[in-house]
Amino acid sequence: MVIKHKFLFETEGAWSDANKSLLCMDTGSWRTERPVLDQAKCNYCGLCALYCPPQCMVDKGDHYESNLAYCKGCGVCAHECPRGALTMVSEGEFAHES
To answer: Ranked by mean pLDDT, which of 12-16, 61-65, 66-70 comes out on top?
Structure first.
């Protein structure tokens, strides 16, 4: 017996062949840690953007920066950075920001 799953949204899927955007939802409030970039260490290799599960890394021309509205704080970008330019910092450090 074969059960076929129907997705609710056109862009929803279990994987992407990169020809369409995946389902994008504002998930920044889920995060307990955020990636912080030390731009002096960054060599603009793009591995953080390549491995970021929600694909929220934004190309700024000489570095990548996470779009915090979509960042879930998983830390994959920081783990994959070969130079240690990204570190995960507790959201409590940014409590004063509005």
So the answer is: 61-65
* Contact call for residues 44 and 63 (beta carbons, < 8 A): yes
Q: Which of 66, 76, 88, 69 is nearest to 28 (CA)?
A: 69
CATH class, domain 34-94, is alpha beta
* Domain parsing of the chain, residue ranges: 34-94
What does residue 69 show for φ and ψ, rounded to 5 degrees? -70, -25
- Average of per-residue pLDDT across 2-20: 55
Phi, psi of 66 (to 5 degrees): -80, 140
Distance CA 79, CA 63 (A): 17
Give this prediction's pTM. 0.72
